[in-house]
Amino acid sequence: MAIVGDTEPTGAPAADQAVVALEQADNPSSPVVRFGPDRPLLLDSGKRLNHLQIAYQTYGTLNEARSNAILLCHALTGDQHACNRHPVTGKPGWWTEMVGPGKAIDTDRYFIICTNVLGGCMGTTGPATTDPETGEPYGLGLPVITVGDMVRAQAMLLDQLGIETLFCVAGGSMGGMQVLQWAATYPERVFSALPIAAGARHSSQNIAFHEVGRQAVMADPEWRGGRYLLDDTSPRKGLAVARMAAHVTYLSEQALHRKFGRNLQDRDKPTFGFDADFQIESYLRHQGMTFVERFDANSYLYLTRAMDYFDLAEDYGGRLANAFRGSKTRFCVVSFTSDWLFPTVENKAVVRALNAAGASVSFVEIDTDRGHDAFLLNEPEMFDTIRGFLSSAAYARGIA
Amino acid sequence: MAIVGDTEPTGAPAADQAVVALEQADNPSSPVVRFGPDRPLLLDSGKRLNHLQIAYQTYGTLNEARSNAILLCHALTGDQHACNRHPVTGKPGWWTEMVGPGKAIDTDRYFIICTNVLGGCMGTTGPATTDPETGEPYGLGLPVITVGDMVRAQAMLLDQLGIETLFCVAGGSMGGMQVLQWAATYPERVFSALPIAAGARHSSQNIAFHEVGRQAVMADPEWRGGRYLLDDTSPRKGLAVARMAAHVTYLSEQALHRKFGRNLQDRDKPTFGFDADFQIESYLRHQGMTFVERFDANSYLYLTRAMDYFDLAEDYGGRLANAFRGSKTRFCVVSFTSDWLFPTVENKAVVRALNAAGASVSFVEIDTDRGHDAFLLNEPEMFDTIRGFLSSAAYARGIA
């Protein structure tokens, strides 16, 4: 049986995006697989999830050999809608530059699966999901999850879909962390791996910025100890501040200078006030305001926490190479010159460990001034690199 | 008449620091000079301040020729207490490493003046000061001020003290901005100038981080549109988040890695929760909590805004060199290799402009991993540089 993807999500974006977004947590406009207490997910914290639902999108067609499946792993604020119209915002998916017919990740050639991550808010179990045992949203009752937990949940979905081996696992940022975790946990299921703008651990500075964001959310009285959904409210202002702080780290100083500089907003002289006077202020406020229309604040806490806890070497006796010993997976590591969140040095640490483990690895540093978010943008050198890597791997894998 | 300084502020720190801090706004434990409507301060915004008070500290002795006065300009969250015990926190002043008997800025040799900046909250007119015309705190009723306004207010104080020429103006970060502004506005009053870790303008990224902080303050419902003092409350949580975000930018990734790394807080394993699990989280929370005990939230808005507006070239026809044409001031510009808030490239832009203007300038980049805050720390190479620069200038100035 060939699985055919390209499912456009059902439902149109409504006027009140926040309401639509909240509905997605339980009833996403994507296919969903549900697991019950007979198939609990054991978590790294030692706790277990007796109920698990996973929402996903697919694009392209699984071949008869089931050998052409690529799993896309999304970043902190992404979701399963990689290259279809987003059911809440109505905008194109987050990786439409990269994924599609004839694109670097070619949906005419490969079968693409993208799941909403565990802890997310677009249909996979997360803090906004209704706990079947209480009938209320999990909120902070959901156990804290890790990148390892996310990957084991994805593996359960693939089992269900009958996909034993992935031709490739690909993703940027937190998605890249999942790629590395996949390669470490299930080396025999991963033919090739493409971690982009990622690292094998979260740095002290990255933890610091995440903590600022979490404190901004939790400082908002509307957060109500995490129980805001029960009161039909949400910490919108706090979450917007968290998003603004994080967004600065996704860009580079050079890109900000080029895009905004010190340009004022529709005027020649400053207003000498506290409204958005500079274009960069207005841009950031817009980023904050639109984000809260589509994202759950508790999800933000859980996913930043999962990233903070990520330290792959720590799980393998303090030596990163041990995570990849004997691996037959082909790796391509991609970094960006102007990324200061996951700078090249962190990506190179992964490359060094892969080399030390005797794994097959190529490494490309893309010259760009667009910072961490370059993995989402039109970067032709990145596309050429990935297209070439996948074509060569496809040949080795016998994919037509 | 020789002015002798070293005034220890009166009053001991009390249990409720926030109350003590608030009292400082009107009745500081420092000397104060007050100006009335007969001597209004004209502001860059076009508005005027009919009442102005300036709080200051002095250290050392003014010589008979009145030629050995050094003005210290403090940074965003500093104040006039450069090297005495702080009347609110009870801790040593912010520049005790640099300033004192026998130190690089030697109080045995020079007469040091440090004023609380206009817009501050330690006794110089700022939003927490009582407006004599209403009997209530200015709050957002205070006109927005600029670095130029700060400097003109300082000049009024010096006139009052009978100090015509400054042997040196020195300061780091926002203090360095004031130094550059002094040299541009009053070249004949500044014999030497020492801007440290500063730039001639605030970059887009710096404006972005400030805007995050302001939004954090204004998102706190206790901010109450800036009128919180009237309600005997304050936006403590929002200000703490703002401070946390800013504090990350004052350090370097390397310093954070060296000091905290991914070390957990007093335990071997993560708690899988949202308490401060990593040492860096606990450190940041502490920074946020202690800051709100001594600083006014509206002051934070005003001073960050003044920094954002700073663009010295803009005031001189778009060409920075024009700000320094014909200047006889001797400059020493100091930057730090790991400072990403005011990176060396911004400091060098000042040096280039000074060279283009034919000014006397030396430039030193200090090799350190401590980031922007290095100007406050024990950096022997910085001390040697500044000691040498001042000694040479003192010889030229005829100071014994």
TrEMBL record, chains A, B:
Associated pathway: Amino-acid biosynthesis; L-methionine biosynthesis via de novo pathway; O-acetyl-L-homoserine from L-homoserine: step 1/1
Record-given protein name: Homoserine O-acetyltransferase
**Protein family per UniProt:** Belongs to the AB hydrolase superfamily. MetX family.
| Subunit architecture | Homodimer.
Q: What is its main location?
A: cytoplasm
Quote the catalytic activity from the record. Answer: L-homoserine + acetyl-CoA = O-acetyl-L-homoserine + CoA
| One annotated GO molecular function | homoserine O-acetyltransferase activity
Q: Which Gene3D superfamilies match?
A: 1.10.1740.110, alpha/beta hydrolase
Its cellular-component GO annotations read: cytoplasm
